[in-house]
Amino acid sequence: MSPLNSNSKTSFVVALTQHRVLGNIFIPIFINTIAEKIYTIAENLHGKKPESFDLTSTEQEILKLCNEYSEKVLASKFAKTQNTKEFIEKMEVVKFEEHIRPYIELRMAKVANLLAANQDIKLYFKDKKYNNVYEDNRIAVEPHVATPIFNFALSVDGLKYHIDAEVGQKSISLTSQHVEAIANIPALIMVNSTLYRFEGIDSKKLTPFFTKPFITIGTATVRKYMESFVLNTIKSQVVKASGFDIVEPKVTAKPVLTFEKGLDGRATLSLKFSYENRDFYSGSKTEPLVTFRADQKRFVFTKYERDTKTEERIEKKLCSIGLIHHTGATYIIPKNEEFEPEHSMYRTVEWLNENAQVLSNLGIQVGQKIDGPQLHIGSCQSMLMAQSDPSGFIVKGGIRFGNDFVSLHQIRKCVIKGQKLVDLDSGRQAIIPQHWFKEHRQLLVFGRETDGTLHLQKQHFSLVEGLEGIDPSEIESLKQYSESNLVQSANTVKGVNATLRDYQKLGVAWLKYLHMNSFGGCLADDMGLGKTLQTISLLQYCKDSFTYEREASVKPTVPLDLFSAAEANNTEPTTTSHPVSLIVLPTSLVHNWRNELRKFAPSIKIHEHTGASRAKSPSTFAPYDVIITTYGTVRNDIDMMSKFKFFYLILDESQTIKNPDSATYKACMQVKTMYRLSLSGTPIENGLTDLWAQMNFLNKGLLGNLSLFKEQYVIPIEKYNHQGRQEKLKNLIEPFILRRTKEKVASELPEVTELEIFCEMTDKQRDLYEEEKRLARERMLAELKEGNNKRSRFVFLQLLTKLRQLANHPSLAGFEGYNESGKFEEITRNIESVINEGHKVLVFSSFVQHLNLVAAYLDDSGIQYNILTGGTTNRQQVVEEFKKKEEVKVFLISLKAGGVGLNLTEADYVFIIDPWWNPAAENQAISRSHRIGQANRVFAYRFITTDSIEERIMDLQRQKSELADIFVNSNNPLSKISEDILLQLF
C-alpha cells in the first residue's frame, strides 16, 4: 500500500525530467498539494511494482512502461549485470545512442499515447534538482497526432524549404522561443508547454527549423536534391510544392488472388493489388510509388497512391465469402490446417471453382504458382441426366471444366479409385468436385457401365433422386416404404385365421410394397413379434391374387420308365400357374412353420421337401403352394431344385447365409425365383459382410460386388467409423429392411406373450429315441403284466424321465457318444438372437445337467452368463451380478432353485427349455421376470421336441378333459392315470 498521509490530497501524475545519463524520461509519481499550485513529491514510483499501489488500469500500464527503462532493468537487459551503478557510469556512447536510447523512446512514445487518450492523468515538468512540482510547469498533451508539412519553393535562386506542423485545422510553428525535442523516434516535440506526437518522422528532421525559418539548396545541386530528398519526402510526407508539380493520378487497383503451395505443403491464396507500374501485397505498408521527370524545364513528380478503400473492400469481401485471413497477404479456406497437404490443395481449388463467378464479379483475377501441370481454376459445371427404363435407370453426363468436357466414363474411373485429378484435353488437369465423391459415389460405384452410360437397378432409386430427367412422382411412388405411407394400405389379409396387430398389418403392407415393386426385403423384427405370421399373410395374398408363367424347366434329365409315368404326368410345360413358393429354414423350424401354416392359412397346400425319402424331381413341387425345406437340403439338392422356377424364395433365420463364401449362400443364390424375402432378427451378427450377403441375396448388385463393398463401406465404417459412409449405406438399404423392436410396438403387445417352439430331432437322435421308446414300451408291458402297480409306476417314471432327457439331449440320458440335439441347436440359436437384439433372458430347466450343457456352449461362444442351481452358495451375489451388469445377458436357473423368491425384471425373455406337466411351476418361473417393476413386455418361450413324450404331454394338456385337469392340477399325476393312457404316452 502507498505510505502517503491519508489527510492530504494525493494524486498520480507523470513527470518529465532529465536523467543525468539517460536524458529526457517520463517517471510516475505521487504528489501531495502543499500550497495553491504547489505540490510535493510524496513518492517516486519509478522501478516499483504496480500491484503494490491502488492504481487504475491505465496508471498501472504507465508504471509498467516506465519500469522497463529503470536503471536496474536497463543494466540487466543491455549489460547482463546486477551492478547498476557501474553500468550507468561506464555506458558507451555509441551503444547508448544506437540501442538504449531508441529502446527508451519507444516506451516513452507509448506513455505519451496513454496520456493523450487519458487527459485526467496530468503531465508536469520536474527539475531534477528539486522535490517540488508547480502548476506553472504543467505540460498539456495534444490528444491528436501532429502531421509535419514540408513546404518546398523552387525558384531561379534555388530551392527553399521549411517544415510546419498541423493538428486538425490548427497550424503549429516550430520556429519558436520555447520548442524542444523530447524524443527522437518517434518524434515528441514540446512547443510552448504543449507536447505533440509525430508519426513517421524523427525529430532530427525538425530540429533545424527550431532556430531558422528555412533551408536553401543552391541551384547547382537542386536537381540531385529533387531526385533524392524531395522524391523520398513526397513518398512518405505531406508536401506543399511551389515552382514544380506533384501529380497524383487516380489509378484503379486490380486484385490478383494467386493459388500457391505454402512451406508446409498446404495450399494458400496470396492476395496482391496490381497498379499500372507496381504490385503491392495485401496488408503491406509499402510507400507509394513516386516518379520524377523534367518536363519543358519544369520538374514533375507523379505520386501513385494505393486505393486503400478498394483494397480494404476486397479484403473484407474475401472473408465474407468464406476465406480466412492467415498471415500478411495470405488467405486460406476454413479448416485448411486440419487437412493433409494434398487434400488442402484439392479443397482450395474446389473453393476457387465454386466461387469463380463471385470472384469474377469482384474483378479478382485468379492465378496459380505451382510446380507441375497447371490446374483448371474457373467455372465447373456438372452435367448429369437420368431416365427410367424397364429394368431400372440409365444415367448419362459428365463435367464441363471451362471449354473442356470430361465424360462420365473418365469420372467414374477416378471416383472409384479415389483419384481427385483428371486430365483435360487442353493439357491441364482438373480436380473433380468433392460433391461428386460425396453425393454421386454410390451411383458411380454401383452403376453398370455400357457404352458410356450407367445402368442402375430399380432398387437404386434413391441414388437417382433429384437428377435431371427423373420424374419426381416416379421416385415418390418407390418411396412408399415409410410407416406413415404404409398406414393407408395396412389391412388384414382375407383367408388368414388371425387377428393381426397394427404393426403386423404395417409389416404385411410393407411386404406388399416390396412385391409390387419386385424388390427383395428383410423382415427383421425382434424375436416374438410375428415374422412368420406376417410372411404367411403375404403368401396367402399372393395365392389369392397372382398367377404367372412358369418355364418348362422340370423335364426329367433321363428317359422315363414305367415306374416314372406318374411323375412324368406331373411335369409342367410352360403354362399359366399358381404361385409356388419355397421357404428355406433351419431343420428345427420345419415343424413350427408347418403348424403355423396349417393354423393360420389352412387353404395353402404345403409340401415338406425334407428327409431321406424326399422327391428327386422338381415336378413334385408344382401342385403345391408352399414348399418347406432346410438349408442343408438346398445345398444337397441344388442341381435339381435350380430347375424349378419358384414364385417366392423365403429364407428364415437368414443370417445362415451370412458367409458369402459358404456352400449354403451359393446354393441359395442359384435357386430360380421371381421374388425374394428374408426373415432375421439379427441380420448383422459379426460385421457388415453379413449385411452384404443378405442384401445381395435379396437384390443382387444393390451393394456392388463384395470387394467393392469392403473398400467403400466395410473398411471406412468398421475401421475408421466414417459417419458419412454409414449414413449413405443406411439410406441405400433403408427401403429393404423393416425392423421393429419389442420396445417400439410394446403398446400393442399383451403383458406376457407365450409362445411354443417345436424342435425337430436330428436323424441320429430320432433313431436313438425311437429305439429307447420301443424298449420302454416293452418294459412297461412286462411290469404291468406282473401286476405290481406301485412298482410299475415307479418304473414308468424312470422310463418317462429317460425319454424326456433323450428328447432334450442324448447326453442327459447317458449317451455320451451322441452330441447332436435338434432342441439344443434351437435353444442356443434363440439365446444368441435375443442377446444380439440387446435383451436379457432367463433360461429355466428342471435338469441341472441341461443347464450345464448350455453353460458350456456359452463359455465356448464367449457369452457372459450367471447360473443358479441348488448347489449355488453365493445366491444373492449371483442374482445381483445379473441385475447390475449390463454385459451379463443370460441367467441359467433350475426350476427348483429359482422358481420362486426372485425378482429379475431386468430380463424380458424367459426360456423354459424342458417343459413338463405342471404349468404352475412354469408360471412361477415366468413371474420371475413378469412382476411389479417390469417396464417391458415379456416373451415366454417353451421349447418342445416334436414326436416326443413332451409333445404327447402338451397334447394331453390341451384336451379339455379330466386327464388335462389331472396333469395340470395334480402333484403326482402318475398315480391317477390309467394303464391305457400310460401306454399311449409311449
From TrEMBL:
CDD domains membership: SF2_C_SNF (cd18793)
Any Pfam family hit: Helicase_C
SUPFAM superfamilies linked: P-loop containing nucleoside triphosphate hydrolases
InterPro entries given in the database record: Helicase_ATP-bd, Helicase_C-like, P-loop_NTPase, SNF2-like_sf, SNF2/RAD54-like_C, SNF2_N
Domain of life: Bacteria
Occurrences of domain Helicase ATP-binding (ranges): 512-701
Name of the featured protein: SNF2 family DNA or RNA helicase
Record PANTHER family: SNF2/RAD54 HELICASE FAMILY
Limits of the Helicase C-terminal domain: 826-974
SMART domains: DEXDc (SM00487), HELICc (SM00490)
GO molecular function: ATP binding; helicase activity; hydrolase activity
Keyword vocabulary terms for this entry: ATP-binding, Helicase, Hydrolase, Nucleotide-binding
